[in-house]
Design a protein that fits this description.
By secondary structure, this protein is an alpha/beta fold. Among the domains are: 3-98, no CATH class; 102-119 and 159-284 and 297-332, Endonuclease Chain A (Endonuclease, Chain A, 2-Layer Sandwich), CATH 3.30.870.10. Helix content is 50%, strand content 17%. It contains 19 helices and 17 strands. The strands form three sheets. An eight-stranded mixed β-sheet has the order 9-16-15-14-10-11-12-17, with helices on both faces. Strands 1-8-6-5-2-3-4 form a seven-stranded mixed β-sheet, with helices on both faces. A two-stranded parallel sheet has the order 7-13. Helix 2 runs antiparallel to helix 3 (72-84), helix 6 (124-133) packs antiparallel against helix 7 and helix 13 packs parallel to helix 14. The protein starts with a helix and ends in a 5-residue tail after the last helix. 41% of the residues are buried.
C-alpha cells in the first residue's frame, strides 16, 4: 500500500472516531434534556404542592431577572421561555445560571487575573507621553489598565497582514527563529498543509530544547481532531491542552469558548488576528469563495501582554503558581517607538465587556470616519445606537460584510439590522469574491483594532477573545489602505436589496433575532 493511501486511511479512521464521539456527546445531551423535561412534567402532574412551590420560584426568578445587573437583551430572551412555560422556563434558567463548572472557571480566572497583575506595570514615560498627546486616549488607557490588566505600550513595531496568505510565511519564519519558548493558542486547528507545516517546525524546535506549549478550543474534538490529540502532541514533546473539552454532561460553561488566536515566540514576537490554523484561512482550500482575513505581528514591549494572556488561560487547569518572570520580554527586544498599542483580552465573566468597550470608544470619539470589517453583525441595543449615532452626526461609517456567508442563519439575522443602519446613514458593503472573516476597526487615521472580536453577541458576551488597539501607529495607514482596496471588490447594499429578500428568509431572520443574545 502506498504511503499516501495509508495516510488517507488513517485520516478516515480518525474521522470515524471523531464523529462517533460527537454522536455520543449529542445523544447524552439530548437524554439529559429529556430527563429534565420528563421530570418537570411528572412533578406538574402528580405533585400539586411542589408545583405550587415551583410557581413561586418562577415569580422570584422573574423579579431577579428584572433587577439583576447585566445585558437587557439577554434578560429579554429568558423572559420568552419563562412566559411560554412558566415553571419549566424558570427551572431551566436556574439550572443554567447555577452551573458549578462555570462558577469554578470564573473564580479560577479571577485568581489568575490577580496573579498576572503583579507582573504588569504601566511604564510612566509612555503614560506621560500619551497624556500630553491626547487626554481622551490617556483616560481610556487608564480604564484598560484598571479593568483588563492591559497597559499602553510604546516601543512596539507592528506589521499588518491583509490576508492569512501573507501572514503564514512570516509565522513559519518567526517559529524557526525560536530559541526559548513558543506559545500557541487557537480556536480552530484542522489537519492540512498549514497545520502540518507548523507542526513540523514545532517538532524540530522541541528537539533543539525550545519549550513549546499548544492550546486549542475543545470544540475541535467534535469534528476536527480526535479527543486523544493532546496525548499525541505530548509524545512529540509538545505540551498540549484543550480548553474546556466537550464532555457528555450538559453544562452552560461549554458556551464560553476560547476564540482567541495568539502566537508568541520568545517574548519577542506575537501574532494575533482572525486566522486560525486551517487551510481555508490561507486560501489553500476554498470553502466560501475567497477567504478575506487579517492579522498583525507585534515586536517589542507589547508582546509581553500576549505572553501573559496565554499563561492566564493555560493555567486555568493548573493549581501551582507559575513564575511569569521566566517569560518576561527582555529589555533587549525594545524597538524604536512608533505610536502606541494596547493589547487586550476579553472575558465572558464580570460586568466589563472589554471588546465591546473598545469598539464603542472608537465609535463615540470618531470625527471623520469609522471603517469596519466583520463576518457577523448581530448587535445589542447599545452597539446599534453607537453605530447609528455616529452616522447621524456626520461620521462616515462603512461596514464590510461577507457576500458568501459561512453560517446562513447568522447571515439572515445580520440582514434584519441592515434597514435601520442604512436609514441612519451607515453604509454596508458585501465582499463579492467570498467570505470576510476579518475583525477590523479603523478611524480617523489615528485608531485601529485588529483582533478576534466579531460584531456579535458571541464575541462580545460569551467568548474569550483578544485584540490590539493601535493609536497613532504608522501601520494604521496600511490598515486603511487595505480597507479601501477591499471596498473596491465589494457591492453596496441598499434598502431596495432588503426588499428583494425572500419572505421566508425575512421571517427566519426575525425569529432568530429573538434568540440573538444566545447566538
Amino acid at each position: 500500500m502506498k504511503k499516501e493511501e495509508v495516510k488517507q486511511k488513517g485520516i478516515r479512521g480518525i474521522k470515524t472516531i471523531i464523529y462517533g464521539r460527537t454522536l455520543i456527546v449529542i445523544l447524552a445531551f439530548l437524554v439529559q434534556l429529556a430527563f429534565f423535561i420528563v421530570g418537570y412534567l411528572w412533578l406538574k402532574e402528580y405533585s400539586y404542592i411542589l408545583n405550587g412551590i415551583l410557581t413561586i420560584v418562577s415569580v422570584i426568578v422573574v423579579l431577579h431577572l428584572f433587577n439583576e445587573k447585566g445585558m437587557p437583551d439577554l434578560k429579554l430572551v429568558w423572559m420568552l421561555p419563562i412566559s411560554i412555560f412558566p415553571v419549566f422556563g424558570a427551572l431551566f434558567y436556574l439550572y443554567i445560571s447555577t452551573q458549578a463548572g462555570t462558577h469554578m472557571l470564573q473564580r479560577r480566572l479571577q485568581v489568575l487575573f490577580g496573579h498576572t497583575k503583579k507582573y504588569i506595570a504601566q511604564e510612566e514615560a509612555v503614560r506621560q507621553r500619551l497624556t500630553e498627546e491626547s487626554f481622551q486616549m490617556s483616560r481610556f488607557a487608564e480604564y484598560m489598565l484598571s479593568y483588563d490588566n492591559s497597559p499602553v505600550y510604546g516601543n512596539t513595531r507592528i506589521k499588518y497582514y491583509p490576508l492569512g496568505d501573507d501572514q503564514f510565511p512570516d509565522m513559519l519564519a518567526e517559529l524557526k527563529k525560536a530559541e526559548k519558548f513558543i506559545f500557541l493558542e487557537f480556536f480552530i486547528v484542522k489537519e492540512g498543509y498549514m497545520w502540518e507545516s507548523i507542526l513540523d517546525v514545532l517538532k524540530e524546535k522541541v528537539k533543539e530544547g525550545v519549550e513549546v506549549r499548544f492550546m486549542y478550543d475543545g470544540t475541535c474534538s467534535l469534528s476536527l481532531l480526535p479527543n486523544f490529540y493532546p496525548k499525541e502532541m505530548e509524545r512529540e514533546g509538545i505540551k498540549c491542552k484543550m480548553f474546556s473539552p466537550i464532555r457528555p454532561v450538559f453544562s452552560s460553561h461549554y458556551n464560553n469558548r476560547d476564540h482567541r488566536k495568539i502566537l508568541v515566540v520568545d517574548g519577542k514576537t506575537a501574532f494575533t488576528g482572525g486566522t486560525n490554523l486551517a487551510d481555508e484561512y490561507i486560501n489553500r482550500k476554498s470553502r466560501f469563495g475567497h477567504w478575506k482575513d487579517t492579522a498583525i505581528r507585534l515586536q517589542g514591549d507589547a508582546v509581553e501582554r500576549f505572553t501573559y494572556m496565554f499563561l492566564e488561560m493555560w493555567n486555568v487547569t493548573e493549581r501551582s503558581e507559575e513564575d511569569y518572570t521566566k517569560y518576561k520580554t527582555s529589555a533587549e527586544v525594545a524597538v524604536k517607538s512608533d505610536g502606541y498599542v494596547i493589547p487586550y483580552s476579553v472575558s465572558p465573566y464580570g460586568t466589563e465587556r472589554i471588546g465591546k468597550r473598545v469598539y464603542l470608544d472608537i465609535l463615540n470619539t470618531a470625527v471623520n470616519y469609522v471603517h469596519i470589517m466583520t463576518p457577523y453583525l448581530i448587535l445589542d441595543y447599545e452597539t446599534m445606537m453607537a453605530l447609528t449615532y455616529a452616522a447621524r452626526r456626520g461620521v462616515e461609517v462603512i461596514i464590510i460584510m461577507p457576500h458568501i456567508p459561512d453560517k446562513q442563519y447568522a447571515f439572515v439575522v445580520a440582514k434584519t439590522y441592515y434597514n435601520e443602519l442604512l436609514e441612519a446613514g451607515v453604509r454596508i458593503y458585501e465582499y463579492t469574491p467570498g467570505f470576510v472573516h476579518a475583525k477590523v476597526f479603523a478611524a480617523d487615521d489615528e485608531k485601529a483594532v485588529v483582533g478576534t472580536v466579531n460584531l456579535d453577541y458571541r464575541s462580545m458576551y460569551h467568548h474569550f477573545e483578544c485584540g490590539a488597539l493601535l493609536y497613532r501607529n504608522s501601520e494604521i495607514a496600511a490598515i486603511e489602505r487595505d480597507f479601501k482596496e477591499t471596498l473596491g471588490q465589494c457591492q453596496e447594499v441598499s434598502t431596495e436589496d432588503y426588499k428583494k429578500q425572500k419572505l421566508w428568509e425575512r421571517l427566519e431572520g426575525r425569529f432568530l433575532r429573538m434568540l440573538a443574545p444566545l447566538m
